[in-house]
Design goal:
Layout lengths: L19 H15 L3 E5 L9 H6 L4 E3 L4 H13 L3 E7 L8 H10 L5 E5 L17 H6 L5 E3 L4 H13 L4 E4 L21 E4 L4 E5 L3 H16 L3 E5 L2 E3 L3 H11 L2 E8 L4 H12 L4 E6 L9 H7 L4 H12 L3
Parallel strand pairs: 1-2, 1-3, 3-4, 4-6, 5-6, 8-9, 8-11, 11-12
Antiparallel strand pairs: 5-10, 7-9
Helix pairs in contact: 1-6, 3-4, 7-11, 8-9
């Protein structure tokens, strides 16, 4: 695994940002123009999930089920059985949150070609509060047989992931954020399901991050290098399932210490997935940075990230502790 030359891995205040949900919505509309089997299914959150781009372009292939997330998945399962490729979108707390039984039985058990889009995931929905801050969705999806789980890091990667799951045959869960992170990838950056991206080579410690926390991992790596001469390897684990175990094995053998970083509960998410593999195949010192078994709350997104320990400084502090740096 090599660092791709198209990646924008040095982050500054002038780095361009982009909307993750716009990346999804525009890519889906683009796909709709080339594949008539693609159908968009909404649970009354059309504009928020950016299905409006598809609805405007292809109204006859847009289905509105209303505030009924179980029906969202049930209808999508039926469409898949009819040969369609349904993209079923809602907020992550509602789907897969409220629709988990239908995802499990109607989609995964039957191994149907349904694409489940969970928007507004994580703390960064801010004022929406704990009831709308999905912090458990990776855990409840990755445990299901047959499903692919992807958490893209920026707008461009979201577009690439959307196109990739459209080609992939089988159940997929695409976890999206309302945030506008730095564009780390470009429109030309290759994306392959199940293949992690090496963003920065290093020799002292490895950061394995996913979603919007990839930006934080890179910033923390920059600070550790500049202030403490620590060489950090940074990996974007955009696919949680199937996990790129070869990338993990290679980096663990290289640096000997791994920190995982996610905007999700520490239990059951990226960190758990990495620990499950490394503990059995190549045990190394590990630290999981995530939400510590608690619900979120209403507040400014940046303030919440600071309160719950999802900041660049917290990543730096955890790395220094692992490396015994004062």
């Amino acid at each position: 695994m090599k660092v791709n030359s198209s990646l924008q891995t040095t982050i500054t205040e002038k780095s361009e940002r982009g909307s993750i949900r716009d990346g999804f919505g525009k890519a889906l509309a683009e796909l709709g123009a080339t594949n008539e089997q693609i159908v968009a299914v909404s649970a009354d959150l059309t504009e928020s999930t950016r299905l409006n781009y598809f609805q405007e372009a292809f109204p006859k292939r847009f289905v509105q089920v209303g505030v009924a997330e179980q029906n969202l998945i049930g209808v999508s399962a039926g469409l898949a059985l009819a040969g369609k490729i349904p993209f079923a979108a809602s907020f992550a707390v509602f789907s897969p949150g409220r629709s988990w039984d239908q995802v499990r039985v109607s989609v995964c058990y039957s191994n149907l070609n349904v694409k489940i889009i969970g928007g507004h995931a994580g703390l960064t929905v801010g004022p929406d509060g704990a009831t709308h801050q999905a912090l458990e969705d990776i855990a409840i999806t990755r445990v299901l047989p047959n499903i692919t789980v992807i958490v893209p890091c920026d707008e461009n990667q979201t577009a690439a992931a959307t196109k990739a799951i459209a080609k992939h045959v089988g159940p997929c869960y695409l976890r999206l954020s309302r945030a506008k992170p730095v564009k780390i990838t470009t429109l030309d950056t290759p994306f392959e399901i199940g293949k992690a991206q090496l963003l920065k080579e290093g020799s002292d410690i490895t950061f394995v991050a996913t979603g919007i926390m990839v930006e934080h991992a890179l910033l923390a790596a920059q600070e550790l290098q500049a202030k403490h001469n620590v060489s950090v390897e940074v990996i974007n684990m955009h696919t949680i399932k199937p996990l790129d175990t070869q990338a993990l094995l290679t980096t663990a053998k290289k640096t000997g210490t791994v920190i995982t970083i996610e905007e999700h509960q520490k239990i059951g998410g990226l960190g758990s997935s990495v620990a499950e593999f490394l503990s059995q195949e190549y045990p190394v010192p590990m630290q999981i940075i995530g939400i510590q078994d608690t619900f979120g709350e209403s507040g400014d997104a940046d303030d919440l990230m600071e309160k719950y320990g999802l900041t660049v400084q917290e990543i730096v502090n955890q790395a220094k502790q692992k490396l015994h740096i004062s």
